[in-house]
């Protein structure tokens, strides 16, 4: 991409606080953006070939939304934790295997999209994200959901299309969790903790495409209680 095109993008961004440059074959995070660290609120560099997010990302202190879907990122720098105003971090379709512990410092974060990466283990340390509405970890390679999941404050947890065969009963203790998606995993009926049905806030529990027929959920203890929450939620939004 020519310098003049980038220059006009930068001039516009200085006024609007938005920098969007998608599907342009960029191989690295544009260094020129450093001039706009105090202006930028939204950056979208989706559909490029960026492999590394530089530590300098930590300088963009006004950033509210950072989107790098469909790039080639394998990880994130620790400096990401400095973005205290960040509300949306979207990294779908990259090659990320694990997350830096500093991610837990993003106190304003509401949406964390990590679908379609190469994450093998459920990410620890996200319980400090008190305002999280959505944690999307679908289409990864996670095999189990550990007890530490109980710390999560998210309202929706999407784990569709992983390789999950073990689900900790502690998931029922997530204080704000209303939507739990576990479609197309490797769960047996016996792996479903009944506390999710009988003793949680979950009002939408989505488990199609596992190693049992969904109708057999009805045989589990607590199913009636779950259906009460499910129906009440449905009525609320009807």
UniProtKB/TrEMBL annotation:
GO cellular component: cytoplasm
PROSITE patterns per the UniProt record, alphabetical: LRR (PS51450)
InterPro entries referenced in this protein's UniProt entry, alphabetically: Leu-rich_rpt, Leu-rich_rpt_typical-subtyp, LRR_dom_sf, LRR_domain-containing
Domain of life: Eukaryota
One Pfam entry name: LRR_1
Alphabetic keyword roster: Leucine-rich repeat, Repeat
PANTHER family: LEUCINE-RICH REPEAT-CONTAINING PROTEIN 57 (PTHR48051:SF62), PTHR48051
Protein's name in the database: Leucine-rich repeat-containing protein 57
Species this chain originates from: Perca fluviatilis (European perch)
């Amino acid at each position: 991409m020519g310098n003049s095109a980038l220059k006009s993008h930068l001039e516009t961004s200085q006024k609007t606080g938005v920098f969007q440059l998608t599907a342009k074959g960029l191989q690295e995070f544009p260094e020129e953006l450093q001039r706009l660290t105090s202006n930028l609120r939204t950056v979208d560099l989706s559909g490029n070939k960026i492999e590394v997010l530089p530590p300098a990302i930590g300088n963009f202190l006004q950033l509210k939304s950072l989107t790098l879907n469909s790039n080639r990122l394998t990880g994130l720098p620790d400096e990401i934790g400095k973005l205290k105003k960040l509300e949306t971090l979207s990294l779908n379709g990259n090659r990320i295997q694990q997350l830096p512990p500093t991610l837990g410092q993003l106190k304003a974060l509401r949406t964390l999209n990590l679908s379609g990466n190469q994450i093998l283990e459920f990410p620890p340390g996200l319980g400090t994200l008190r305002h999280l509405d959505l944690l999307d970890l679908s289409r990864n390679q996670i095999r189990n959901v550990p007890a530490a999941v109980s710390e999560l404050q998210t309202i929706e947890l999407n784990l569709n299309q992983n390789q999950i065969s073990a689900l900790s009963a502690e998931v029922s203790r997530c204080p704000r969790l209303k939507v739990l998606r576990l479609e197309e995993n490797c769960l047996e009926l016996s792996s479903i903790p009944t506390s999710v049905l009988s003793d949680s806030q979950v009002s939408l529990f989505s488990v199609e495409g596992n190693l049992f027929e969904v109708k057999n959920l009805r045989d589990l203890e607590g199913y009636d209680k779950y259906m009460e929450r499910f129906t009440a939620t449905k009525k609320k939004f009807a």
